[in-house]
Design goal:
Helices cover 47% and strands 14% of the residues. The protein is of the alpha/beta class. It has a seven-stranded parallel sheet with strand order 3-2-1-4-5-6-7, with helices on both faces. The chain is globular.
């Protein structure tokens, strides 16, 4: 299927590795010119070069902290008028809420709620003016099924979800959609870090916890960044203009509910 986005411009945050990288690759394979961000220049430049070699699109790498005002300004200076915005930032650490103070909560909100909102604020009117826009917020399956040790993430991402539910109904008449993509257990550094914490608490090895967790999933495995990226690309497609304000859960069947 031709997704109808060749020649479009995308800003993909936290894209040097993991799910953001998967999204950047999938969009580039559809002919989208991508601006990618991450904190660490080395891995970011390596990813940018891989995308260029494979797809031939224009790739701009911006080493910055997207969760800061300065970082967002750097990213938007490189890609001031994106047709596609993929919001993504590393999640806050796991732990017990009793150990978190106000600074911990503010940091989580800045990264996983306010940064996406500020980037949408900076780009959505341009999308409306061009009568094409696709915003995808990478949140978490924990929005639907909270994970006890990820309280900071649960709270911040749920706040973003509520905000998007309202805004997305105002932009869709202009062919600007805003949706959330909710990863479950994907084989990423983030998943391995969280399972390392669980393994320590359970008194088993990290490898054993990874095996157990994969087997517990109805799919019998973890998801891949490529699968996630291709779903993101479809949500950004010309064909997806009638979907907005949705939470697309990708978790291999782990969530047992009907809604």
């Amino acid at each position: 299927m031709d997704l109808g986005i060749k020649g479009r411009k995308a800003l993909v945050c936290a894209a040097s590795k993991g799910l953001g990288r998967g999204c950047a690759f999938s969009l580039a394979r559809e002919g989208v010119d991508v601006t990618i961000t991450a904190r660490t220049p080395g891995p970011l430049e390596a990813t940018a070069e891989e995308i260029r070699k494979e797809t031939g699109v224009t790739v701009t790498a911006v080493a910055c902290d997207i969760t800061t005002e300065e970082g967002r300004q750097q990213a938007l200076a490189a890609c001031p008028d994106p047709d596609i915005l993929v919001n993504n930032a590393g999640g806050p650490p796991p732990g017990d809420f009793r150990d978190w103070d106000r600074d911990d909560w503010i940091k989580a909100l800045d990264a996983n709620m306010l940064t996406p909102i500020f980037l949408i604020k900076a780009t959505v009117d341009g999308m409306i003016g061009r009568r094409f826009g696709r915003v995808v917020n990478i949140t978490s399956g924990a929005v639907k099924s909270p994970i006890d040790i990820l309280g900071l993430s649960n709270g911040a991402r749920a706040g973003l979800t509520g905000f998007i539910a309202g805004l997305s109904r105002k932009t869709v008449r202009h062919n600007v959609t805003i949706n959330n993509l909710l990863p479950g257990p994907f084989d990423t550094d983030r998943l391995r870090s969280n399972l390392k914490t669980r393994a320590k608490a359970a008194g088993v090895s990290e490898e054993e916890m990874l095996r157990i967790r994969a087997e517990e999933n109805p799919a019998g495995r973890f998801g891949t960044a490529e699968e996630f990226g291709d779903m993101c690309a479809f949500i950004c497609s010309a064909q997806a203009g009638f979907m907005t304000g949705q939470n697309f859960l990708m978790d291999g069947g782990h969530y047992p509910g009907t809604l």
